[in-house]
């Protein structure tokens, strides 16, 4: 897509914006006394052909067949109808070459006019645009509104100094406070203890965003591990995407962050992986001590920081003892393993160790 077409598609001025719409200046008798180039482009009449003629020569309430299309009837009649057309009047415009266009119009009275002026005195301004264009524009606005208020994906915009300038509702929930409370803060102030765990990328938020700003290349599905302010003390994992925001001339405005919390999904996947690994590695021998070692090896450190496996003496020696006797109740420790630096204390108890 070319830069020109990109700029065009990113133009969020509405079709009824006076800088884009077909604009007509009317006097108190609805005579055309002003005719914009956009009006000439829409209807095919130049200003010389339009000035001095009644508005009804160009806009009518009904088409030649006498029936409005279904979408226009729904928009103009009672009931919710297409939300984009609420507050706008629907007309049929006749073009110079005989075509009929369904258009939405809006009227703005001029200050101090109120029908008091005579013929030729500006009384109000009417703007018009094709209904189809208005519906298309409203769908884009609805998308933006949904991203800002309804999307489950956290969205944030950082300026070129990497200070947060805007966020959506999902991001505010994650922060546990309104945007006004953290606007202007740097990323590392919000998630100072977190880092990216995806290999091949900078570990810090600032490093990744600076890379995107400098290169213009977006990055997708980076995994960030940290603790949100709304849930301190508990690690979360996000899938993040970053892309540079630019104005219509290609100048960088900042970086947009999309972040979706995948903590629960990640933990489920970790458990499934652990179960698969356990099924592969545990039970390779019938020896109790070997099986206990396999359990400890699999469980540390993805499942536990320390694992100690104690079994009854009879399970190891094959000896049987009277139920409830000291011999029956005595335990042997057949395996023990701890993650480096875990420092988990032994709970103690009458446990002997098995002889190697």
From TrEMBL:
Residues 335-356 are annotated as: Disordered. It comes from the Bacteria. Residues 8-63 form the PAS domain. Signal peptide: none annotated. Gene3D superfamilies: PAS domain. InterPro entries: PAS, PAS-like_dom_sf, PAS_4. Pfam families: PAS_4 (PF08448). NCBIfam families: sensory_box. This is PAS domain-containing protein. It comes from Streptomyces sp. SID7499.
């Amino acid at each position: 897509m070319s830069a020109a077409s990109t700029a065009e598609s990113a133009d969020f001025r509405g079709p009824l914006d006076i800088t884009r719409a077909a604009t007509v200046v009317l006097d108190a008798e609805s005579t055309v006394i002003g005719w914009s180039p956009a009006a000439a482009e829409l209807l095919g009449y130049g200003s010389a052909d339009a000035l001095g003629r009644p508005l009804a020569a160009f806009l009518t309430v009904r088409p030649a067949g006498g029936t409005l299309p279904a979408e226009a009837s729904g928009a103009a009649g009672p009931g919710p109808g297409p939300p984009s057309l609420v507050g706008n009047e629907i007309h049929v415009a006749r073009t110079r070459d005989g075509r009929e266009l369904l258009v939405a119009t809006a009227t703005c009275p001029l200050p101090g006019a109120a029908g008091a002026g005579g013929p030729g005195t500006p009384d109000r301004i009417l703007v018009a645009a094709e209904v189809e264009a208005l519906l298309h524009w409203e769908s884009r606005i609805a998308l933006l509104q949904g991203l800002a208020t309804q999307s489950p994906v956290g969205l944030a915009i950082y300026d070129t100094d990497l200070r947060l300038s805007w966020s959506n509702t999902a991001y505010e929930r994650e922060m546990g406070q309104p945007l006004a409370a953290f606007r202007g803060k740097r990323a590392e102030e919000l998630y100072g203890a977190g880092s990216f765990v995806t290999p091949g990328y900078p570990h810090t938020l600032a490093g990744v965003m600076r890379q995107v700003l400098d290169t213009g290349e977006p990055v997708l599905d980076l995994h960030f591990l940290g603790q949100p302010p709304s849930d301190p003390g508990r690690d979360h994992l996000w899938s993040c995407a970053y892309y540079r925001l630019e104005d219509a001339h290609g100048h960088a405005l900042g970086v947009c962050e999309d972040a979706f919390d995948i903590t629960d999904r990640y933990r489920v996947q970790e458990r499934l992986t652990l179960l698969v690994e356990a099924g592969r590695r545990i039970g390779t021998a019938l020896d109790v001590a070997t099986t206990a070692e396999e359990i400890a090896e699999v469980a540390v450190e993805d499942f536990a920081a320390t694992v100690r496996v104690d079994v009854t003496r009879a399970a190891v020696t094959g000896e049987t003892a009277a139920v409830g006797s000291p011999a029956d109740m005595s335990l042997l420790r057949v395996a023990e393993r701890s993650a480096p630096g875990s420092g988990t204390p032994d709970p103690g108890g009458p446990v002997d160790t098995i002889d190697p």
